[in-house]
Amino acid sequence: MSRVFNFSAGPAALPESVLRRAAEEMLDWHGTGVSVMEMSHRSAAFQSIYQQAEADFRELLGVPANYRILFMQGGAIAENAIVPMNLLGDKRGADYVVTGSWSTKSQQEARKFAEVNIAATAEASGFTTIPAMERWRLSDDPAYLFICSNETIGGVEFAFDPDLGDIGRPDLPLVADMSSNILSRPMDVSRYGLIFGGAQKNIGPAGLTFVIVREDLLGKAHKDCPSAFDYALVAEAESMYNTPPTYAIYIAGLVFQWLRAQGGVEAMGQRNAAKSALLYNYVDTSDFYENRIDRACRSRMNVPFLLKDDRLNAAFLEESAAAGLVQLKGHKSVGGMRASIYNAMPIEGVEALIGFMQDFAKRKG
Ligand code: PMP
């Protein structure tokens, strides 16, 4: 068996110790004689797995007591519709800050349910920056303001938790798609009304969607909202309104235990800063590669980079894969390469990538 350094944007690399533990427990979980996959979601065994996962997630992220954590399905793309269906209430519209492909998709979907006001967009820059908060133009009475905290495709990340009090709207709920940077650094959950994301980058396998929602935002779902997507019903049923993705929750739980053993989000934040700085510094000092994102908004999770001579892209991908560095192809809308370096990517993987990039540049430059 040989494992490679996997730079996939998602589903993404998981900690090897988590995969080993899951393999050990595959046929017989803790003497129950069954796999977690074969358990009733209402059994005491699965309830204990669920309770531990929820408690660890809450502790890791410092989720305050007046927020509910929901484990749902449908991915972040479904949440683009589920959020307005649940939060609009008696308001007509919602505000969106557009910083790349994913927030563009989010506001497009929301238009099915709400009047959408684009409070700010970085489109004119080619989505290489985040518009300054002072320049956000909010509508008069939106139900919420939406951001994507990390644009997985463009490589643009909010390095801070926006405080809407700073722009005179302390009571406006801030909603964030955190699919690709959840648990990557310490954060202030209380700045947000609702946080959602797919699990398949920093948390676990695809199929699990997390939602962290402030309790006062529950209970306003549109009458046509499917019951399985009504946050209040899901919260009341402790994420068991329908059968939850049990195995994905189990793996997420193992990842949470791994994160705690690593020193939690504090340690992750330091490690992710160091990993991404290493790669950006190399790209910036090289005359062979480049990254065009505004330095203050560069993602620590997804590092897109271009070869200045794009005729070398195919050779780069072929040779890097042969060297055990896989899934480096950039998204087709951006081109070039993208190294996704989530929590589970060790610094050794980033060092190996830089070593390969240096060698490739020397040979082809
Ligand atoms: N938002 C962001 C920021 C993402 O990175 C992704 C997945 N790459 C999505 C939304 C879509 O997630 P899903 O496929 O889980 O619906």
Please render the helix and strand layout as text.
Layout: E1 5-6, H1 16-25, H2 44-61, E2 67-72, H3 75-87, E3 93-98, H4 101-110, E4 115-121, E5 145-148, E6 150-151, E7 156-157, E8 174-177, E9 194-198, E10 209-214, H5 231-236, H6 246-262, H7 264-285, E11 289-290, E12 302-307, H8 313-322, E13 325-326, E14 337-340, H9 347-364
Parallel strand pairs: 1-13, 3-4, 3-5, 5-8, 8-9
Antiparallel strand pairs: 2-10, 6-7, 9-10, 11-12, 12-14
Residues 10, 75-77, 102, 148, 152, 177, 179-180, 198 line the site of 4'-deoxy-4'-aminopyridoxal-5'-phosphate.
Which key features would you list for this structure?
14 strands, Aspartate Aminotransferase, domain 1, alpha/beta, binds 4'-deoxy-4'-aminopyridoxal-5'-phosphate, 34% helix
Order of helices and strands: EHHEHEHEEEEEEEHHHEEHEEH
Number of helices: 9
pLDDT averaged over residues: 98
Please, how many domains? Answer: 2
Give the distinct bound molecules: 4'-deoxy-4'-aminopyridoxal-5'-phosphate
CATH architectural type of the largest domain: 3-Layer(aba) Sandwich
Beta content comes to: 15-25%
Task: Please estimate the helix content.
Answer: 25-40%
**Given the helix and strand composition, which structural class is it?**
alpha/beta
Question: Count the strands?
Answer: 14
The first-level CATH class of the largest domain is given as Alpha Beta
> Remind me, CATH topology of the largest domain?
Aspartate Aminotransferase, domain 2
Which consecutive residue ranges, at least 5 long each, have pLDDT under 50?
A: none
| Cα end-to-end separation | 34 Å
Strand order of the largest sheet: 2-10-9-8-5-3-4
Under CATH, the homologous superfamily of the largest domain reads Type I PLP-dependent aspartate aminotransferase-like (Major domain)
Largest sheet: 7 strands, mixed
Q: What overall geometry do the principal axes of the alpha carbons give?
A: globular
Radius of gyration: 21 Å
